[in-house]
Amino acid sequence: MTDHYFSAEPTAASQPRTVTFELDGRSWSLAGDAGVFSGDRLDQGTAVLLRETPMPRDGGTLLDLGCGYGAVACVLAVRAPLSTVWAVDVNERALGLARHNAAGTGVADRVRVVVPDEVPEDLSFDEIWSNPPIRVGKAALHDLLQRWLPRLSPEGAAWLVVGKHLGADSLQRWLVEQGWDCRRHASRKGFRVLRASPGDRGR
Question: Which of 1, 181, 194, 203 shows a CA-CA span of 20 to 30 A to 26?
Answer without folding.
Answer: 194
